Amino acid sequence: MEAVQGAGVVVTGAGGGIGAALARRFAAEGARVVVNDLDADKARAVAEETGGIALPGDASAIVPEARDALGGTVDIWCANAGVGTGGSEAADEDEWERAWDVNVMAHVRAARALLPDWLDRGSGRFVATVSAAGLLTMIGAAPYSVTKHGAYAFAEWLSLTYRHRGIKVHAICPQGVRTDMLDASGSAGDLVLKPTAIEPEDVADALFKGIAEDRFLILPHPEVAGFYQARAADPERWLTTMNRLQRTWEDIR
Description:
Layout: E1 8-11, H1 17-28, E2 32-35, H2 40-50, E3 53-54, H3 63-69, E4 76-79, H4 93-121, E5 124-129, H5 142-162, E6 167-172, H6 180-183, H7 186-192, H8 200-212, E7 217-218, H9 223-233, H10 235-252
Parallel strand pairs: 1-2, 1-4, 2-3, 4-5, 5-6, 6-7
């Protein structure tokens, strides 16, 4: 793919799951890949596998190091690191803060560091791994749902603000993906996500199709488009349906 071959790519949260699948796919398409993860051993393992460069650490703070590692230019930034914080409004303050910091502010900080160079040269690509929860919601996971809405809103804002200046933005919004995060989602994930869960490689395939089509919204589960349309067209009916799902979950947990 011309948009990817030879590009300098950073994938955060790439020690496993969707991030590792993205790193592998970008490398297979001829990109130069920086593999970031808080787990240094996992980052190094994926980097070794893909011929990439391991850069462990906080995804919010690695833009300068990543730029140096790629010879001075980051062409594509995949803001993939995320936390799947469950709970309700009663979740601890530190859980809410961590969800905001990782799921939203890490994207903001990366964009803040990347955009001056991208705007100067008139090109750059920002890929946000959001979630279908950012378009819809997820029962039993208030911090996750709320912050994924924020991640989607920020990606949308970036796209509408800078697309005429050469900045490409993609928001990936899958439902269940067979990763450690899905395994940790408990009975709510078992009910809502696992029946239609896909592999991380399917998410990478969907992203690359979206890049080829120059499309902002990437839906690895195509049925999410219909759910999103139903939510917008008749919010009361949609909320009633979701509340029915909530009650089913309450009965089985």
